[in-house]
Amino acid sequence: MAAGVAALPSPASAANERIDVWLDAGFNGHRTIIMGNNPDLRRSGIDNAISSLRVHSGRWCLFDGYNYTKSFIDVVPGEQIADLTTRNGNDKISSIRLC
Ligand SMILES: [Ca+2]
């Protein structure tokens, strides 16, 4: 490969941080990839519908209310939750942001 610049590991930046969410438990059903703050999941069609998630990078706060209100769950890089009922958060999340 010409003019190759090695892709060096870099500190996490907001632009690269990612959390995947699913509408069903066990990482099943429709998946949505979220890579930035989202104050209103109605826009993504997944309001009050997320049932499982996996954090690729970044520390995220998940809120029951829109615009980051009624915080109830935070998750860290590498964390995954197969069933949000275990965190009292099934079908409740309405906004997500890095925290
Ligand atoms: Ca909600």
UniProtKB/TrEMBL annotation:
Mind telling me which InterPro entries this protein's record contains?
Answer: Beta/gamma_crystallin, G_crystallin-like
**Domain Beta/gamma crystallin 'Greek key' positions:** 18-99
The highest taxon in the source lineage is Bacteria
- A Pfam short name: Crystall
UniProt keywords (A-Z) are:
Repeat
Per the record, the similarity remark reads: Belongs to the beta/gamma-crystallin family.
Q: What name does UniProt use for this protein?
A: Beta/gamma crystallin 'Greek key' domain-containing protein
**Source organism of this protein record:** Micromonospora qiuiae
**Lineage of origin:** Bacteria, Bacillati, Actinomycetota, Actinomycetes, Micromonosporales
